[in-house]
Structures are given as C-alpha cells and as structure tokens.
Amino acid sequence: MRHFAIVGSGPAGFYTAEALEKAYGEGARIDILDRYPVPYGLIRFGVAPDHQSLKAVSKRYDKVAESAGVDFIGNVCVGRDVSVPELLELYDAVILAVGAPHDRKLGIPGEDLRGVIGSAEFVGWYNGHPEFADLDPPLDGARAVVVGAGNVALDCARILSKTRHEFEGSDIVGHALEALDSSSIRTVTILGRRGPHQVAMTPKELGELGHLEAAVPEIEMADFPPVEADEPLEPGLRKSVSILRSFADLPQDKPKRMVFDFFAKPVRIEGDGRVERVIVERTELDEKGSARGTGETYEVPASLVITAIGYSTSPIEEVPFAGGKFVNENGRIADRLYAVGWARRGPTGTIGTNRPDGYEVADRIASEMPPGTSGDRAGVEGLKRLLDGRGVMPTDYDDWRKIEETEVANARPGSPREKFVRHEHWLQAIGR
Ligand code: NAP
After folding, report:
1. For 45-56, how does the pLDDT look when each residue is reduced to its tens digit (9 = 90+)?
2. Which of 222, 263, 354, 417 could make an S-S bridge to 12, C-beta 3.0–4.6 Å?
3. Considering only CA atoms, which residue is closest to atom 33 of ligand 1?
4. pLDDT tens-digit series, residues 303-327
5. Residue of 263, 264, 265, 258 whose CA lies nearest to 243
6. Ligand 1 centroid from CA 308, angstroms
7. Stated pTM of the model
C-alpha cells in the first residue's frame, strides 16, 4: 500500500487525487488535507458567486472524494498543526496544492491607507472566507478604482456594479449582498497599466459587462490602435479587444459606469487617514512591450481601491520558496515532495489548467514509485495519532457533508446556499 498526502483541496489538489487514484487503484490511500472543514478552496472562496456554472466543476471533485481510496481530512493546517517533514515521515509522497491566496502588493506610497484592499480580501469577503468576514469594505463613496486588467479585476468591478436582483441564483454571502445593495458606488474605474492589446481579460467575462442591469462599460477610443492592428492578435485576445471596442456603441443610459482607463499606472495613493484619490501616471509601451511612464500624471478620486494584480502562495516552513511559489522543477520540490497548481506554476491559467498539471505530477510519482510496489509508511493512522497528541481534531467527509447540508437548508430564497463565514460556525454545525 502507498500513502499519499495532498495538502489543499482546491482544483489542483482534486485533479491530482483523481490522477493518483486512477494510477494506483486499490494500491494507494490518498488523503486530501485542508485547513478548513469544507473543501474546494478556489471554487468556494475564489470563483465569483455569480459564476455558478464554473463552480459546477466541483461535481467532478465530489466523485473523487466519494471514491474508496480517497479521504478528505479537514481542520488541519500544515505548517502549524503538522510540519511537511513530519508528513514526509508518514506518507510516501506529499503534494502541496495550497494555491496562491495572498495579494501581490503594488509597492507604491499610500497602499496601506484605509480603503485600499487586495482582491484576495475583497473576493474572500463576498465569498464567505472566514479570514475576511470582517473586512467591511468602504462602499459609502461614489467612486471606486480597481487596479489590474485581468479577470479578477473584472470580477471585482462587476460585483461592485451589479444589482441585488442580478445576484439571484448566486451564492454570494448575506453580509456582502446587504452591503453591496446599499453601496453608493456609481463609477468603477479599471486601471490597466498597458493597453487594450495587452489585457488579460477573457471574452466571456468581458462580454458580460455589456448586459448589466444598472451599469454600462465605457472606453476611450483614443486608447485603441487602428482596427487593422487587431488582425495578428491571438484569436481569444482579438475577441476580447473587439468586445472592448464594441463598448463604444453602448448607450450611456444607466446609473452606474465601469470606466476602462488604459495606459494608466498608479504611482501614489493619497488621502487623510483613508483613501481619497489615486495619482496615476500615463504610460506608453516601450520596445519590450512593458509600460513606461510618460511623466504626465492625473488623479482619479476614489474612496475604495481594490488591487487585482496577481497572487502569491503562502510559504511553508522548511519548503524552498521564491518568487511567490515553491521552488520546483516540473512539480518536484525535493525527494517525495511535489507542488501542483498555483503553488507550482504561479497564479495563471483557468481551473482546467490544473488538470494536466496534476496528472503530470501524478505520472511522475507513479514512475518513481510504480503502482504495485509498497512502502512502509503509517499514513493516516499515524497522522491521526500525531494530531491527537497535539489536541488537533480533524474533520472528515461526513462532517463536511453535514456542514454543506446545513448551509443549503439555511439558504435564503434565490441562493443555492447560505455560506457559513466563520470557522466556529462550521464547527458548531457539526457539534464541536
Ligand atoms: P492576471 O490575469 O495575471 O492579471 C493581472 C493584471 O494585473 C494584469 O493586467 C497586469 O498587467 C496587472 N498588474 C500586475 N502588476 C501590476 C502593477 N504593479 N500595476 C498595475 N497593474 C499590474 O491575474 P488575475 O486577474 O489575478 O487572474 C489570475 C488567474 O485567474 C488568471 O489566469 C485569470 O484568467 C484566472 N481567472 C479566471 C476567471 C474566469 O475565467 N472567469 C476569473 C478570475 C480569474 P500586466 O499585463 O501589464 O502585467
């Protein structure tokens, strides 16, 4: 029997478990550990609540969790409750699938002012992440700025602009729905430090903006090169650019605006105790296609600034870490220690990108420890003894299902569930 520990129960962790299960069948026990008693990481806490079709991928992970060789072990924080070297003693291989939950910083003056928040915090707040339940983002001003030209920036801008009615069928948490419903924000400015040809926004996500109930996107045609210049673009990007261009034809007849400000790099954030404005420098592209400041600056008033400029992984003691992710070579960090997903590659790609990534690492493990061979590790029994000695009480599959059933049973009309937003709520739901 082989024993494998996957740390992190998001898409990368589940695809890797699926691949290991396929490779080893009954010859392996696969434990998926998570610091929370409920799984699915990015699917639960990251994917926008109004994108339920993307969340449906969790049905595939449900099947993995239900398979005989796979166990979900929640409420265990690796690095705090158990170390990676200890896991390596107990398991034949340890795979880190912890994602990239931290915001990258802009590194400009004023970033610490009240009202400047990272997208991980804001997204966590509206998705019921327990660390951000008390975020209370300031929604009392008329203007917000979102920094970044990627899909996360789009998510944040869209969530700020939707009506209560548009959240029907979503699993946005109650506290965020109430706060957004009484928000005073009327203009969301999206700052892209480069131009429309350099956006990291995908067509489907951009297309949604043209159909919002109370908000309309706005672009400046002068930011765009002549239309012929779109021709050589990669098809997905070309589509994104053509959707952006089409925004010019939309009637500006809705109360809220989403203003795309391209070639605009924030250089300073100012305010008296809380953010009041962003000082932005006009940019142009240099020879390498990077943003180069032109020296011309202007200010964008805002009482809320959300930075959506990428994420980094949490370091774990005794695991080599550099550049926001674990140091690895094609997923291998050290002997019997691997990384998958954003912890391996950095925060890029779609949910589906994690599938080949997880399968590749599982293949590698299978070639190093061929199915049919056996190790002499203690696996989950040893882990449970160790945790018991430390007073840590792991949760299991049944606990997770009970929490989920309670969330679904408590759902308000129009929502698939009412998510618990605090760790102790999860534990109360299972009588802990
Ligand atoms: P991203 O796609 O890498 O976009 C980050 C954006 O931040 C880029 O526009 C980048 O501009 C900008 N940026 C970086 N540093 C900056 C700085 N110092 N100042 C100003 N702008 C800066 O990252 P993301 O939006 O966080 O998304 C992460 C991944 O999740 C992506 O693969 C994304 O597609 C995916 N995702 C998908 C969906 C969906 O499919 N619905 C939703 C959310 C996220 P430069 O290009 O100039 O560096």
Report:
1. 999 999 999 999
2. 354
3. 151
4. 999 999 999 999 999 999 999 999 9
5. 258
6. 7
7. 0.96
